[in-house]
Design a protein that fits this description.
Layout (H helix, E strand, L loop, with lengths): L17 H4 L14 H12 L19 H15 L4 E6 L5 H11 L4 E7 L5 H11 L10 H17 L3 E7 L6 H10 L10 E7 L1 H7 L5 H4 L2 E7 L4 H14 L9 H11 L3 H17 L7 H9 L16
């Protein structure tokens, strides 16, 4: 098999445990032949894993509740339960916002009709079409804005008459411009007095919060009743996150050195998706070198080969 990261420095034994030291440089690595699934089985067997611990696709079995994620989810629940007109959750790319949304969707009961709109954009008529389609309503490109809005309003009123309120969830809502956000604010005018027919949940990157904080958006901001900015993980939380995913994947012994975890946190800024990517690459590098422990040099080799692009934006401590 091709060798990943062929340029390697001499490596000392350092302070590795005795059961790891004997295999650090001598162990033979099986060839990764055959289908990708077979290669993955070899990868898992080599490290004593039953599942891939750092897959980039969300998996509810690996859900990790950091203190910040618990607070963010509590705010989501608070917004839904108190019938907040608008709930706003922000965080960096890969911070776990979509995972929180998926958990919320699984928890909602039959008294709620949910419309999920991902990556919303376009004119106000296009936005209405996305909304109607998310609610299983027809939305022809030939329909006028008036027709579309009338259909949307009738849908919301019908759901309310059936004992259900409508919650529209906008993922990647930072793509909405000022005009679109103003349109969403107008949607909430459907609510009459204490009767809440419609709620909005907006989830997006930190720039969404910056847009809403502008002076010309103050009318929109006044309807935001639940708000939370999801920060990146600190070092201690990142360490627990890595251990948690390894435990779920069947690993009972240490796999990443303390120094490796510190470097991973530094390079990723504590963003979960980036942690997953760098941990997975580090395991691949350790596997090809026959190492049973991922140490700081292994992580460094991933970086030297250009296989991972470190986080270079924002402040790793506040996640923005």
């Amino acid at each position: 098999m091709p060798t990943i990261g062929a340029r390697r420095r001499p490596r000392g034994q350092g302070g590795l445990p005795s059961d790891l030291r004997e295999t650090q440089d001598q162990q033979q690595v099986p060839e990764m032949q055959g289908a990708p699934a077979e290669a993955l089985n070899i990868y898992n067997d080599f490290f004593g894993l039953t599942h891939q611990p750092f897959a980039l696709t969300p998996d509810p079995d690996f859900l990790f509740w950091s203190p910040a994620h618990k607070r963010a989810y509590a705010m989501l629940e608070y917004g839904v339960m108190t019938h907040a007109p608008i709930t706003l959750i922000t965080g960096e790319v890969g911070a776990g916002k979509t995972t929180l949304l998926q958990h919320l969707l699984r928890s909602l009961g039959p008294e709620v009709k949910v419309g999920l709109i991902s990556n919303p954009s376009g004119s106000r008529a296009e936005l209405l079409r996305w909304v109607l389609m998310s609610l299983d309503q027809q939305a022809s490109p030939d329909d006028s804005y008036v027709d579309l809005f009338s259909r949307f309003q009738n849908c919301v009123i019908h759901e309310y008459a059936m004992g259900r309120r409508v919650i529209l969830i906008f993922d990647e809502a930072q793509n909405l411009d000022r005009a679109a956000l103003e349109e969403l604010r107008m949607f909430t005018n459907i609510n009459a007095g204490k009767d809440v027919l419609l709620q909005l949940v907006l989830v997006g990157q930190p720039e969404l919060r910056e847009i809403v904080a502008r002076r010309d958006m103050r009318q929109f901001a006044q309807r935001v009743a639940a708000l939370f900015a999801l920060p990146a993980m600190d070092l201690a939380t990142a360490q627990e996150y890595i251990l948690h995913r390894l435990r779920i994947a069947g690993r009972t012994r240490k796999l990443f050195s303390t120094e490796a975890v510190e470097k991973i946190h530094h390079l990723t800024g504590g963003v979960p998706r980036l942690i997953n990517r760098l941990c997975d690459l580090s395991l691949v590098y350790a596997f090809t070198a026959g190492r049973k422990l991922v140490d700081v040099d292994t992580v460094g080799e991933v970086l030297e080969d250009g296989a991972f692009m470190p986080m270079t934006f924002g402040d790793a401590e506040d996640g923005s």
